[in-house]
Specification:
mainly alpha, Amino acid/polyamine transporter I, two-stranded antiparallel ribbon, 18 helices, 2 strands, about 0% strand, globular, AA/rel_permease1, transmembrane transporter activity, Amino acid transporter, transmembrane helix, membrane
């Protein structure tokens, strides 16, 4: 069997080097053995099935159409370097842990019950339809592309158009009331950061992907490269369709305002229904990724009741208990929303902050080893080669930049309801985690690296 020394990470050659050999699936067994993990899942996913618009209210309030356009432009570039760095890491450690190695009055309980219903559907698909999930992902890809053209062409043809100069050069503050327009633009960019995330989700189903050390990073790279042009085209059409930014921002979902301004009520509802279906498909994929990462953390004794949570049902080919815990979290969050939308929003405001923190820590660790101890990097079949250091530096820089701005509220001098409570929640979680580590976690949790080949003996 090849050792890490025999197939060391390529730190001098060109990027995207493949050195998988001809043994195909056998490499998956070698990777799992090297990382001290037991292969428990059937590898149903290939590169296509593992490759799978949006709320831009904040961007229009803080920056206007020009702020939205240019924010997307630089964020797409910045996120690209994170994707490259994470793709290489996925080749180093292809495990489920990912980088962790119309006139209608709504009520809170309507939203909560809808979320629980969607969660129930998503959980059922991921548990009892696990063996067909790869096939479903292929269907999702086809529907994703088809729906894109339906929505894009419909809005482009039917909507009134604003002036190009207005779209690309008119930066405005439409209610954020920040003292500096540039500051408003920086705050407004946060939704764009969220909208370009998730290409790394495939990393968390690596143990169910064939030839994962090559397939997973390749999928992450091409998922980003193929979806970004689609998203950019949709954004351009969307921006030209906003003929009145101040009016559009009176709707919490400006895209719905565009549809209502362009189509009949029935037409707007039809397009909205298509987008709802897309959201449901995304939820299924995200649930698969989240439950697998929970499984991976439990497998390393990082969760309560790890023996129960990491159990894999051999007949269903899924860690069903981790799926049920993930669904339980969805229910709890929905109930919190009924009681206090403020508390709910405070919790979910952590999304970008937490992701960027994990990106920065992971990329930073790889960068340090790449510079100081390159010989200790794991074997890799999808390598950044000589571009590794600059790519990691740029990825780390962008992750830190995004982390900082993700804490800011949409409005200057916000009320309690408008405040971005991510800074309080994040600090609290880190404090509690620190205490837990000192008191108990350090005695039972060693992390995935400790059982990798060559590490057991220190």
């Amino acid at each position: 069997m090849d050792t890490p020394r025999e197939k060391q990470a390529d730190v001098t050659g060109g990027p995207f080097v493949s050195d998988a050999g001809s043994d195909g699936y056998n490499q998956d067994d070698k990777d799992m053995l090297r990382m001290g993990k037991k292969q428990e899942f059937v590898r149903n996913f290939n590169w296509i099935s593992s490759f799978v618009a949006l709320n831009n209210f904040q961007m229009l309030v803080d920056g206007g159409t020009a702020g939205m356009f240019w924010s997307y432009t630089w964020i797409i570039v910045g996120q690209f370097f994170i994707v490259l760095s994470l793709a290489e890491m996925a080749s180093m450690a292809p495990t489920a842990g990912g980088q962790y190695h119309p006139d209608f009055v709504t009520h809170n309980y309507y939203d909560a019950l809808t979320a629980i219903l969607i969660g129930s559907i998503v959980t059922s698909v991921n548990v009892w339809g696990a063996k067909k999930l790869a096939l479903l992902e292929n269907v999702f890809v086809a529907l994703h592309v088809a729906a894109f053209f339906v929505v894009l062409i419909t809005v482009a043809v039917t909507s009134p158009k604003t002036d190009a100069k207005e779209v690309f050069t008119h930066f405005t503050d439409n209610g954020g009331n920040y003292p500096l327009l540039g500051l408003a633009v920086m705050v407004g960019q946060v939704p764009a950061m969220w909208n370009v995330l998730a290409s790394d989700a495939v990393a968390h189903i690596s143990e169910e992907v064939q030839n994962a050390s090559i397939t997973t990073p390749k999928t992450m790279f091409w998922a980003y490269m193929m979806n970004i042009p689609l998203a950019f085209a949709m954004m351009i059409v969307f921006l030209f369709a906003i003929t009145d930014v101040s009016e559009a921002t009176t709707a919490f979902f400006p895209f719905v305002w565009v549809l209502q301004n362009s189509l009949s009520t029935a037409g707007a509802q039809a397009i909205t229904a298509i987008m709802f279906i897309l959201v449901l498909m995304i939820a299924i994929s995200c649930f698969a990724s989240t439950s697998r990462q929970l499984f991976a953390f439990a497998r390393d004794d990082g969760m309560p009741f790890p023996t129960w949570m990491k159990k894999v049902n051999p007949k269903l080919n899924v860690a069903a208990n981790s799926c049920f815990v993930t669904f339980g979290y969805t229910v709890v969050m929905s109930l919190i929303y009924i009681g206090s939308p403020l508390a709910f929003n405070a919790i979910i405001s952590l999304a970008i902050v937490a992701l960027m923190a994990t990106y920065a820590i992971s990329i930073g660790c790889v960068l340090w080893r790449r510079i100081v101890h390159p010989e200790t990097l794991p074997p890799v079949f999808w390598s950044l080669g000589k571009w590794g250091v600059p790519v990691n530096i740029l990825g780390l820089t962008y992750a830190s930049f995004a982390f900082f701005w993700a804490f800011w509220p949409i409005y200057w001098k916000p009320t309690a309801e408008e405040m971005n409570w991510a800074v309080v929640i994040f600090a609290g979680v880190m404090f509690i985690s620190g205490i837990n580590w000192v008191l108990s976690a350090r005695k039972m949790y060693t992390g995935p690296v400790a059982i990798c080949e060559g590490r057991q003996d220190g």
